[in-house]
Design goal:
alpha/beta; Rossmann fold; eight-stranded mixed β-sheet; globular; 290 residues
């Protein structure tokens, strides 16, 4: 296993270990595997996991592949050396040869036509449209003809069903009142980050076509998100920076987290146990290199 430099900071995202996150992503990964098998894939020698974090998506994919097509080589790519170090620990028992690459995705350079499957879990929305295109093009060059590119996100234009918008409005309004009561004011000159710009599914379909992919499937999955998951999402600095840009990020995260319970109680749907939740759409894209 190749280990990268680990001297950079890494902010662990607790939401990635919630039941909701693992359940919806496993369902999506199982669909990716089904599509590969339906498409005639019998051998997978090399997988690349983009923005791997601690290796959760790579682990889910490996666990759901049939025993006869387990990959010989897995490449994990991330900007954080500390995240890659953790991914290496998490995956070393499942992978014969593991390579860890520390680089921004838009600067990724792999040997042409050397990859069978590329996956990208819950990260495409962090990049600008220009950098998304660069990354798609890099992956297209690295994939073998007919190779698979699968990715997903819960941050896109269609992610929030119309019936759930009252929850988001209530959470933001409650958080803003909290911040103002504590003496915080919004810097109106600060622009919203790229991750807060929810792009439509058609945007990703167009990018795939422009980069030379054949789109096999784009579809929505629905996750039931409960209080604990929403609190962990809201406490994540990048989410808070998008939802309440212009306010100090740490204070915004605290306010959003505190606003979850009352907003969910008022606007959440109820499950069979009378527990409130908010449904959230996650898209899954499956494409092949032409």
């Amino acid at each position: 296993m190749n280990t990268p430099n680990t001297d950079d900071a890494y902010v662990y995202e607790p939401f990635a270990q919630t039941v909701e996150y693992l359940k919806i992503n496993e369902a999506i990964v199982r669909r990716w595997v089904e599509a590969m098998l339906e498409g005639g894939s019998k051998h997978i020698e090399r997988i690349v996991d983009l923005a791997t974090g601690v290796g959760t998506m790579a682990r889910l994919l490996i666990e759901n592949l049939p025993p006869n097509i387990k990959p010989a080589d897995v490449v994990c790519v991330d900007m954080s050396g500390r995240a890659l170090e953790q991914a290496g620990e998490n995956l070393k028992a499942q992978v014969n040869h593991l390579t860890l690459v520390k680089t921004p995705l838009q600067e990724l350079s792999l040997e042409p036509q050397s990859v069978d499957v590329a996956i990208w879990g819950n990260g495409v929305h962090y990049l600008s449209s220009e950098d998304q295109m660069k990354t798609f093009s890099n992956i297209r060059r690295a994939l073998k003809p007919g190779g698979w590119f699968c990715f997903n996100s819960a941050f896109y234009e269609e992610a929030r069903p119309p019936k759930t918008l009252s929850f988001y409005r209530s959470q933001v309004a409650t958080a803003v009142r909290n911040l103002r009561s504590r003496g915080f004011s919004r810097d109106k000159s600060e622009h919203s980050p790229e991750s807060a710009l929810y792009l439509p599914l058609s945007h990703y379909q167009d990018l795939l076509a422009q980069a030379g992919f054949q789109v096999e499937e784009i579809r929505n999955f629905v996750a039931k998100m409960y209080r604990s998951a929403w609190e962990k999402i809201s406490a994540f600095s990048q989410y808070a920076a998008g939802a309440l840009h212009g306010y100090p990020t740490d204070a915004a995260a605290e306010a959003l987290e505190a606003a979850v319970a009352p907003s969910l109680e008022q606007y959440g749907e109820r499950d069979e146990n009378d527990e409130p939740f908010i449904p959230r759409n996650w898209f899954s894209a499956i494409a092949r290199a032409k």
